[in-house]
Amino acid sequence: MTILIVLLLTGFSAVGMGLLMSAAVRTQDQATSFIPLVLVPQLFFGGSIAPIATMSAPLAARLAPRGYDPDRCAVHPSPSASPTAPSPSPSPTSASPSDTTAPDPSGS
Q1: Residue that wins the pLDDT comparison between 96 and 42
Q2: Can you give the residue range of the structural domain that contains 37?
Q3: What is the pLDDT of residues 73-93, one digit of tens each?
Q4: Cα–Cα distance, 100 to 81 (Å, whole number)
Q5: pLDDT in the model for residue 9
Q6: Which of 10, 55, 66, 101 could be joined to 60 by an S-S link, Cβ 3.0–4.6 Å?
């Protein structure tokens, strides 16, 4: 239910910003020129270009949602966590010398 509310609020705010921008300009070319000026700051301050955890403390404190903890976020794991690489599994085509047996010449 929470996701539905967030999606509805996001949709309404996007439509509202589009209507506000279209009311502020006179031609379609001006509106097209202003789109990057509106969208790039949203991407930057929303954490898409630079993660909020890597921003300066005052900026991150203003932009991060209430209760945001970068150590608990799956997208930005804490630097103290040591990543473990999975051990490579043996390929089915490579066999070790102990796995190979010579064929029985007698056929049995």
Answers
A1: 42
A2: 2-63
A3: 555 444 554 555 555 555 555
A4: 41
A5: 93
A6: 55
Residue 21 lies inside a defined structural domain of this protein: yes
The DSSP letter of residue 64 is S
The total domain count for the chain is: 1
| Global pTM value | 0.47
Residue 94's pLDDT is 52
- Both structure tokens of 98: 């102990």
Assigned domain for 9 exists: yes
Please give the Cα distance from 30 to 24 (Å, whole number): 9
* Structural contact between residues 63 and 55, judged by C-beta atoms closer than 8 angstroms: yes
Res 40 pLDDT > 70: yes
Is the residue at 38 inside a domain? Answer: yes
Report the alpha-carbon distance of residue 64 to residue 62 in Å, rounded. Answer: 6
| Residues composing the chain | 108
Token pair of 25, please? 């300009």
Query: What token pair was written down for 90?
Result: 């043996």
